[in-house]
Amino acid sequence: MPVSPAIDVADLHKAYTYHHKAPGLRGSLQSLFRRQTLQRQAVDGVTFAVGEGEIVGFLGPNGAGKTTTLKMLCGLLYPSAGRATVLGFTPSRREHPFLRRIALVMGQKSLLWNDLPAMEMLLVHKEMYSLADAPFRRNVAELAALLSVEHLLDVQVRKLSLGERMKMELMTALVHKPEVLFLDEPTIGLDVVSQQRVRDFLRRLNRELGTTILLTSHYMDDIQELCPRVLVIDGGRLRFDGPLGALAEQAAPDKLVRAVFSEPRAALAAVAALGDLPLRRTDDPLEVRLTVPRGRVAEVASRLLAMGHVADLGVEDVPVEEIIRAVFTRSAGAPSAQNGPSDPSDPGAGGASAHSEATALEARP
């Protein structure tokens, strides 16, 4: 018997209506009598499905429709058209059994209150979700141990570092053990050590509890380490759905060949001999870095070795950042609805904290 996906999206649309006003007093007076109404398509016919227990990366440039899609999947926004189900529920209905089984963490917006210790907010969520005392204490202890923050539970939130605060955000969202976790830039602003700890935690959460995770991030390390599958959205439209490796082959049909020579003259000779290949800039006079079509890698490597004086030779994939940038550059030439103001549902537009707390409040029976 086929298993229903945890997240199922079909031809999802979200359009925003806004009013255009010319600047200055004259524009204000004109808008009183003749207001120009425009529309922006933030999400334009997106279709995908995420199976139970999957970790999927959701990529796209700013304003692509990522946050809008996540908010529709959480029930914070109503879709203009199309269908979305999460765990068999229609998110826009905001039914209590649905809200008790999901969580949304937004890296730029907080669920915590600055003047209270995190433990106080965890107790607030305990009441919101009507959690029994023993399971609640057990969950808090497990999460605090996983994130190594046992000693910080009674510290005022305003006195925590950004990384410590992000860990507390995750604890607050996960204390009721949701089955589906939506993460919007969870490592934004964190140092490399804190980013790695958050990634390790999410990997373990998925492995041990089977939590389904849909993750947006501009840090490619997050995607490479956590997400075997990626969705790429741009201009409100889904541009790619598949393994990260397949995206690399589709968007970057080249490899990087790196050779280190024992003397500068040999490096210069290699550059002259392989002048038909794009040369990548390097500050090391002994190093040569070439962009090579995948089908010519063996040939180029053999030619470099045959020149002699090769101290080191390596073949690398094109950095993921370049691959994603190539995808965005290509799709920028395709028809899209990028005109108009920025997405009103983006974190920077305000109101997201209220939305996030509304999700938790609606979970009260």
How would you describe this structure to a colleague?
This protein is an alpha/beta fold and 365 residues long. It folds into two domains: 51-80 and 94-248 and 345-362, P-loop containing nucleotide triphosphate hydrolases (Rossmann fold, 3-Layer(aba) Sandwich); 253-317, 2-Layer Sandwich (Alpha-Beta Plaits), CATH 3.30.70.250. It has 13 helices and 13 strands. A hairpin with a 6-residue loop joins β11 and β12 (287-293). The longest helix has 18 residues, at 192-209. The chain starts with 6 loop residues before the first strand and ends with a helix. The model is unreliable at 335-365 (pLDDT under 50).
What is the CATH class of the largest domain?
Alpha Beta
The CATH topology assignment of the largest domain is Rossmann fold
Proportion of beta-strand residues: 25-35%
Query: In terms of structural class, how would the helical and strand content be classed?
Result: alpha/beta
The string of secondary-structure elements, in order, is: EHEEHEHEHHHEHEHEEHEHEEHEHH
CATH architecture of the largest domain: 3-Layer(aba) Sandwich
How many domains, in number, for the residues?
A: 2
Widest sheet: strand order?
5-6-7-3-8-9
Short description:
The protein has 365 residues and is α/β, with parallel strands linked by helices. 38% of the residues lie in helices and 25% in strands. The chain folds into 2 domains: 51-80 and 94-248 and 345-362, P-loop containing nucleotide triphosphate hydrolases (Rossmann fold); 253-317, Malonyl-CoA ACP transacylase, ACP-binding (Alpha-Beta Plaits, 2-Layer Sandwich).
